[in-house]
Amino acid sequence: MTEPATAYPESLHNYLSGAGESALQQAYQIGRRALEAGTSLVAIADIHHACLRKLLAHETATAECDRILAGAAQFFAECVSPYEMTYGGFREANTALRHFNEVFEQEAKRIAKVLHDEAGQLLVAVYIALQNLSDEVPAVQPQVLKVTQLLDEIESQLRRLSHELVPALLNDLGLVPALRYLFEGLAQRSQLQINIDAVPEQRLPKRVETTLYHIAKEALHNVVKHAQATTVWIGFHRTADSIRCCIRDNGRGFNPAPIAAHQAEQGFGLMGIRERLSVVGGHLTINSTNGQGTELVISIPMEK
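-> structure tokens emitted (304 positions)
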């Protein structure tokens, strides 16, 4: 903030005094350094406004005022051009990420279909072969029964995995029924107790429901892998402008500061959550302390 506040007035004065292209280059460099330093666009606009007030304070000639305003506008546009280019790059990256998510969802549908249809057909063939073997060799019936029971468990797991990849309940009944089914399977596999509180009273937009479903799934897998928790609470709070989801566990917790400072080094789980949220304009806050559990607060603006 200090550098733009001192460099901007001097460079603007030089440009209005006829410094030409070199002063515009200075404007661009001021904007670039301000962007790198995290200076907001509003702060740059405030500096520009203060400069204009000072330049026009004692100027009465209309032609000179027009010259100052036109020149200052051009200087300001050059200064904020790094912000515009960054924003343009962000929009392009967001579009690419959205396309990637769409491709990912289509691939997930393909894999789910293979699991449900093709693997299911193979299991049916195995069932028939085992039944034929049991009929031909009655002595192996006890062993066939054990294998059949294992195949039943495999079929159940494949069906559940297919649902988790492409949850039909999400499209048919909504977010909460899909999450309950997901949590039921996860609880059986991990002995984790999962509680859902304050569920949305109405269906959410499809993109928001899909995003929240996959984020909840990723967050819970992280809890199972890292948190050493026994209980998880998930709750929702809807306003006119946004939907807020809190996922809290009673696990070992951690210090989130290093993760915030080194986002490129995050585990895949948190990176995936942030990337999904960026597509829908959402935000993630991590509240955690060593030994005190972890809370993820997800906020997504509602589509108009």
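Strands lie at 193-197, 231-238, 242-249, 283-288, 294-301.
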